[in-house]
Amino acid sequence: MDTDNLRLFVMAAELLNISAAGRALGIAPAVASARLAKLEQELGVELLRRTTRKVSLSLDGSDFLPYAREILAQSDAARAILGGTKAGPKGILRFAAPSSFAQRHIMPLLPKFHETYPELTLDLRLSDTRFDAIEGSFDLALRSAPLTDSSLRGRKLADDTRVLCAAPSYVETHGMPQTPAELQNHQFIAWSDLDPRPLIGPGGEAATVTPSDMICRAILDDGDAQREATIAGAGISINSLWSVSEELASGQLVRLLPGWRMNDHSVLWLVYPRSNVLTPKTRFFIDFLIANLGNRPDWRDQAGSAAPV
């Protein structure tokens, strides 16, 4: 199979527009249609369903798409190793990330990224709900959790320290909890899963934050909304330092139980399916994110450095 035709198919499948895919690759619309028809003839199946209004993937096209991406990834990686291309990365990179993290830290980097890699387009899929990096056919995904899935590989981006915090107005009204046990008497802004979260004290003692045992007046599935509700004084919440470090520094939020830390071993990982070749475009993007967001000291655990209000 001609890899140029495969690249055209992948582009058309991602854009659901044959003419746009052709233009992106410098091919006239009529030529793009003819080349895709030739690929379908070689394979003996219909990959794309065409109507006067839209283009969609057929069932065979959906099944074939991840293999086409893999063939292209292998080809690009081989050419890069052999010095077969001197140009920078190009094409479309599918990247999934938590919406709250992307809005706060990745969106501001887009101008710099576009200037550095002008021929690489980011297809960003943003959601604070859990995603499947393999089923979604992503080139790369940001996951905030221990890397325990054996089907994935990853590189650490940064620490993901999580802290208990509240607004000064909430503390003034409801008081400052001095021990984990006192949290049960407070209002809590819970994450949607309501899972218990382990704590470890300054002397190594263990405790647990159990949202289901607390007064949960709000249950959210969006990190930005959780932070804003906490700033408004709606209750205590667990937030990542990458989400609230600025608000803690400015005094909009205060850290509770500063001698304790979350003991959930959470790290920000850049992950990709183990079966995938790490393509040059993916490797470039990983290096870009690590260079700009990795090793942030304000995201590391500083338990014990702050004093209760």
Structural class: alpha/beta
Mean pLDDT: 84
Q: What distance separates the N and C termini?
A: 67 Å
Largest sheet: 5 strands, mixed
Estimate what percentage of residues fall within beta strands: 15-25%
Please identify the oligomeric state: single chain
The low-pLDDT segments are: 303-309
- Overall shape: it is elongated
Strand order of the largest sheet: 4-3-5-15-6
In percent, how helical is the residue content?
Answer: 25-40%
Radius of gyration: 24 Å
Describe what you observe in this structure.
The structure is a single chain. Helix 1 crosses helix 2 and helix 1 (3-15) packs across helix 3 (29-43). The protein has helices at residues 3-15, 18-24, 29-43, 59-81, 99-106, 110-116, 168-174, 223-231, 241-250, 280-293; strands at 48-50, 55-57, 91-97, 120-126, 140-144, 152-159, 162-166, 187-191, 197-200, 206-209, 215-220, 236-240, 254-255, 261-262, 267-273. The strands form 4 sheets. It has a 5-stranded mixed β-sheet. It has a 5-stranded mixed β-sheet with strand order 11-8-12-7-13. A 3-stranded antiparallel β-sheet has the order 10-9-14, with no helix packed on it. It is α/β, with parallel strands linked by helices and 309 residues long.
List its traits.
five-stranded mixed sheet; disordered C terminus; elongated; 309 residues; alpha/beta
Question: What would you say about this model in short?
Answer:
This protein is α/β, with parallel strands linked by helices and 309 residues long. The chain has ten helices and 15 strands. The protein is 37% helix and 24% strand.
Map the helices and strands.
Blueprint: H1 3-15, H2 18-24, H3 29-43, E1 48-50, E2 55-57, H4 59-81, E3 91-97, H5 99-106, H6 110-116, E4 120-126, E5 140-144, E6 152-159, E7 162-166, H7 168-174, E8 187-191, E9 197-200, E10 206-209, E11 215-220, H8 223-231, E12 236-240, H9 241-250, E13 254-255, E14 261-262, E15 267-273, H10 280-293
Parallel strand pairs: 3-4, 3-5, 8-11, 8-12
Antiparallel strand pairs: 1-2, 5-15, 6-15, 7-12, 7-13, 9-10, 9-14
Helix pairs in contact: 1-2, 1-3, 1-4, 2-3
